[in-house]
Write a structure and sequence with these properties.
Rossmann fold, 2 domains, 7-stranded parallel β-sheet, 6-stranded parallel β-sheet, 15 helices
Length: 382
């Protein structure tokens, strides 16, 4: 039973698995520093994994994306009720939907301190469909209201996303903090020799069109047609709540064609990267992709797109290559350079490991996040 003077922190996430893979080290550090840690999110089979770490889990009605207005009103109402009942000292909202509704609820419930972690802008900001533009306009108004909380920080993972929000007046620059990603356990994700033939090129991601999966398959087809002997592997599953999700039938069709292999969802990515020779993520936009940080820590060269988030991890020509977005031919050309030159793969992989250790070690990310909490607690006291 926590002492009465123990500060209570509530993490808010619309995806339990994402919380476990991206925010668990921060939550564990909070518990070890004497905080009473709570987590709120949708009903999930992963909730037991969260409580096993000594956290209290609260189930709320929450879908993976912004959809039905009545459902979203119900979500907001449940958040306000939970905040009023639990009375957390600080709410840490994770990912775009949790940030939108969590920041509004935190203002309405007068939560003393608020951290909004914008981990990436995703489909809502990538798509230019009429529906996406309308929802985006409404969402920006919601962000503007929520971010006016008197004692809050908005965490961005890259400067491009921060500039987009500050430049449009959604958040004041003095409330912004840049924390570069979720960090990587550099002991678990350690370099291993690239062995075995043929070379394996891995795309590790949720299977979404805006992750560049289509361009990866097209690039693989180009290289196979040219006679290059390599295996091209998709690692990840469909994400049905996202409009950009690729149907499993399509993934199975690609797998059956022999152009790529689909390995599905994998929980031990350090073992996947150990098998890989090259890691590829031709995404249209990211916050700061954890998979690329993990690949760099494992000493694997990376081919990715020159877009926000991805270019935070890859220095072109140093630890990998940057290619134009939606350009399968350029992607194939850079993959060909690495497939044909194991020495280049090794040199770039070593550079990536050095970058991961210096910039993205999880201890550094946890320390920066806890420092942000302490600053907000001090502001509250003053």
């Amino acid at each position: 039973m926590p002492r009465r003077d123990t500060k209570k922190i509530l993490f808010l996430s619309n995806d339990c698995d994402y919380f476990l893979s991206h925010r668990l080290p921060v939550a564990v550090a909070c518990r070890e520093n004497g905080y009473d840690v709570h987590v709120a999110g949708p009903a999930s089979s992963s909730a037991g994994n969260i409580t096993s770490h000594g956290f209290t889990y609260h189930s709320i009605s929450m879908s993976g994306r912004i959809s039905d207005p009545w459902q979203e009103f119900t979500t907001l109402r449940e958040m306000v009720r939970l905040f009023n009942a639990l009375r957390p000292d600080l709410v840490h909202a994770v990912a775009i939907k949790s940030v939108l509704f969590g920041s509004i609820a935190a203002r309405l419930a007068r939560v003393p301190a608020l951290v909004n972690a914008v981990t990436g802008l995703g489909y809502l900001f990538i798509s230019e469909s009429l529906k996406a533009r309308v929802v985006r306009s409404i969402a920006l108004r919601g962000f503007r209201f929520g971010f006016r909380h008197g004692n809050c920080r908005v965490l961005f993972q890259n400067r491009d996303d921060s500039d987009l929000f500050t430049g449009s007046g959604v958040v004041s620059p003095d409330k912004v903090t840049i924390i570069r990603g979720s960090g990587v356990d550099v002991d678990l994700y350690a370099p291993h020799d690239m062995s075995g033939e043929p070379p394996i090129v891995v795309l590790p991601s949720r299977m979404l069109w805006d992750k560049g999966v289509g361009e990866f398959v097209e690039a693989a087809a180009i290289l196979k047609k040219e006679g290059w002997h390599a295996r091209f592997v998709l690692v990840g599953d469909s994400y049905l709540s996202n409009p950009a999700s690729i149907a499993r039938e399509k993934l199975a069709q690609w797998d059956a064609s022999g152009v790529v292999e689909w390995w599905g969802q994998q929980n031990k990515m350090h073992e996947i990267f150990r098998q890989a020779h090259i890691v590829c993520l031709p995404s249209y936009r990211e916050g700061l992709p954890k998979a690329l940080i993990e690949a760099a820590a494992c000493g694997r060269p990376i081919v990715t797109t020159d877009v926000p988030g991805c270019r935070e991890v890859v220095i072109d020509g140093v630890n990998g290559f940057l290619v134009p977005v939606k350009d399968a031919k350029s992607l194939a050309a850079k993959l060909k350079l690495l497939i044909s030159d194991p020495g280049l793969c090794k040199r770039m992989g070593a550079n990536g490991r050095e970058l991961a250790e210096g910039e993205f070690a999880v201890k550094r990310i946890v320390s920066e996040t806890l420092r942000c909490y302490e600053e907000l607690f001090k502001c509250r006291q003053s």
